[in-house]
Amino acid sequence: xxxxxxxxxxGRLVQWLKAPGDRVARGDLIAEVDTDKGAIEIxxxxxxxxxxxxxxxxxxxxxxxxLALIQPGEAGAAPGAATPVAAAPPxxxxxxxxxxxxxxxxxxxxxxIPHYYLSTTIDLTPAxxxxxxRNRDRPPAARLLPAALQLKAVAxxxxxxxxxxxxxxxxxxxxxxxxxxxxAVSLRAGGLIVPxxxxxxxxGLDDLMRSLDDxxxxxxxxxxxxxxxxxxxxxxxSLGDRGVDAVWGIIYxxxxxxxxxxxxxxxxxxxxxxxxxxxxxxxxxxxxHRASDGHRGGLFLARVEQLLQEPxxx
Amino acid sequence: xxxxxREAVRAGLRQALQTDPGVFLMGEDVxxxxxxxxxxxxxxxxxxxxxxxxxxxxxxxxxxxxIGAALxxxxxxxxxxxxxxxxxxxxxxxxxxxxxxxxxxxxLSVPLVIRMATGAGRQLxxxxxxxxxxxxxxxxxxxxxxxxxxxxxxxxxxxxxxxxDPVVIFEHASLYPVEGELADAAGPVDLDHAVVRRPGADVxxxxxxGSLAKSLAAAEELARDGIGAEVLDLRTLRPLDLDGxxxxxxxxxxxxIVDEAWRTGSLAGEIxxxxxxxxxxxxxxxxxxxxSAEVPIPYARQLEEAAxxxxxxxxxxxxxxxxxx
Amino acid sequence: xxxxxAPGPALEREPALARLGTMLRIRRFEExxxxxxxxxxxxxxxxxxxxxxxxxxxxxPALTPEDNVVATYREHGQALARGVPAGAIMAEMxxxxxxxxxxxxxxxxxxxxxxxxxxxxxxxxxxxxxxVGLALADRLRARPAITACFFGDGAVAEGEFHESLNLAAxxxxxxxxxxxNNLYAMGTALSRHxxxxxxxxxxxxxxxxxxxxxxxxxxxVEAAAxxxxxxxxxxxxxxxxxxxxxxxxAHSMYDPDLYRTKDExxxxxxxxxxxxxxxxxxxxxxxxxETLGQLEAEAEAEVAGAVAEAEAGPLEPVTDLLRxxxxxxxT
Lengths: 314, 325, 331
Prior knowledge:
Chain A is an alpha+beta fold. Chain A has helices at residues 96-112, 125-135, 146-159, 205-221, 226-230, 294-308, and strands spanning 10-16, 23-24, 29-35, 38-43, 48-53, 60-62, 68-72, 115-123, 166-169, 172-175, 181-183, 185-186, 192-193, 196-197, 234-237, 257-261, 265-271, 274-288. Chain A has two domains: 10-72, CATH 2.40.50.100; 93-313, Chloramphenicol Acetyltransferase, CATH 3.30.559.10. In chain A, the strands form five sheets. In chain A, strands 8, 11, 14, 15, 16, 17 and 18 form a seven-stranded mixed beta sheet that branches. In chain A, a hairpin with a 5-residue loop joins β12 (185-186) and β13 (192-193). By secondary structure, chain B is an alpha/beta fold. Chain B folds into two domains: 2-181, Rossmann fold; 195-322, Rossmann fold (3-Layer(aba) Sandwich), CATH 3.40.50. In chain B, α1 packs parallel to α8 (150-160). Chain B starts with a strand and ends with a helix.
């Protein structure tokens, strides 16, 4: 739901002007939305195919709510696939207490953890080229997404930074034995859940991709195991999300760090003294300043960046 | 040199036009007519029509043109005949002059001086009797001055012409014929400080502009009763010299503010709030205000007199504050 | 007053391609601005120039770097055509400190003194007296420059339009008044807010020379603007040029456009200034697909760079809140 005005907080979807399966071009009108001022037609800003609508006519949703999924269609457009979830998530009513718990944890985190924030822009062009080559002969269901590379790079980097793979317990950091990367999954009903992939540093990329798909599906279906929710040692958020360029996460206690990846987008970067268009992503680290400092955080992010330049070693 | 407030204003204008070729004066009837209050008489003849410009009755356009000319490197003095007509130019002053420095991120400055006659007391009725200094003093981005003495009438204009910010100068219409002494070489004056015009130990009378004379008269009368009223001339209404006000109030421990504007939303209210914020512990009585009655200023003489702050009312207010009726 | 729309000038390839390029840059920039506003990156009000590009693209070449430009809140096109860097404009709309107004102004208040671009005014008609003043300063300082003042048909209703034309004519000031008549003052059609809808004709009442031109034909706009600017420079007197144009989008982003019909918009879109010039160039064999592709790519790259610059821009610390209110301490 776009923000159309300084005082617009929500909009009611009146009707869809396109149907799933339709091709859309940048500038096409895709839906009619009712606002306080009257019905406004809204446009899409990308070429592609409308995969799925997420909001029904008659529904009123806050500004910022995803309305539809679009598979970007043209070669040469910003690389990035549809979000990892293909299935429409049912709204699990029984998650509401869980959501409340997460809200309480987030508020506590912001109150008690002194966050510091770092970011870096990572050139993903070689990684994406490697992925494209690898995916070329695969059916869609078996394709690897950039998200898998990002998760693996974070997990491997943590081997060298155990202070970022710790739990804060009884006023001290306790480095954890395994590297269990939590994946932030957004829920249809609103809310976030963070199940972890166990021993992510030891998973092959294909395994990681399968685990990711499986976790996300089960998360949205409300079928997670408690160990998946309790064991995470670090969290990675906003994978493949096309909505934002950078994400500044809130640390999930008792973890001591959270890594964010924004969307992958064409940027002008300097390569061999020339300004060229490269595919880049903004990676961020929010760190618990009790457990680590910006120097360590910066080295960690630099290692993640390095790892992403050599995808065949992930 | 014995002279009048009006002539002091003229002397300031003349000196400004002589010393800085970037200065020019524009406004209604400032040229051929010699100025509605005769403040610019003779200047057109001396400096010519490029530097002393009669404007059509277009307050918005010529105040805005003053802003544009200031942006373009000149130092215009725009005379709006009275504050009553300035309402037509309020948009240019509030939305342009006051904001351009800030809205442009510091790229622009508007070195513009606007002079306006203000005040009541001559039976000119509701549309010609406003005291809206507080409206202008409300706006960040402009400076507001109220010269109440001959020295300030001349010197504040000269000092304002050295500022890079827009300055609005209020000349109370009753002051123009007031006679006094002014040094021949009187130049620019300080713009940042209030001045004690009459020292006293028992109460501070805070005032400005056309109310200064009545406040001094009240102090004279009170002195005969052994009440020492210190009369503080604010001189600058934005920014207020809060340090100066508090220094006096901490000494006397009582304050009466005399302000010709209507009481509601007045500058007197602002000053009272500041005194409460900064010197509450030093006060022996609540701050009192003597302002105009909440009525459009009437024409009939006795009604107008009753509407405006007068010396007896100031005396009464002081007596009440010092606890002696 | 001259009558409307002299015949189009002969087509010269390089300048025409330059105008096309400018219009494309403005169009792509505005489309991206719309997208970013919908995404919540740009806030406040956003007034798009889509459809009106020919006016800014055609007028700016008639001005020199010494001339002054005053515009309205719908001024992205003028700013870009004047040379204000796209990154500075985008960063300004993102509210970042690397914006052309340090993030203090936003979309409606773009300023760039180095390019004599004096804003960016949100009060309709508010810029006209300022333009008169800039021209007055130039006259008093014997600076040979003119002041171009853009405003819409809505401003013609404000007293300041009349006061400013009168004053500029009376004092013989070099102001080029440019009325972008897009037929609507926000949601009120020209015929519903003006008793006399021939805007150029109103100049007669102030003894000001005037003309009207088809605002969708960039080459006609340029020719008319050059003639008008030349007249102002030569005679030192004001001139009113009415540019008959149309905006394809609503007044601002939050406008359901209830006051005009889709049919009317569709008819005007046939005269999309970019489409018109393209067709003309292609018909004369002066525009290949390759050249067009290059112009498009340049425009897209400029916009992408502008967004990156805006994204990377810092936020002014709140501790600096009170700076630039007055020059001297104490406000």
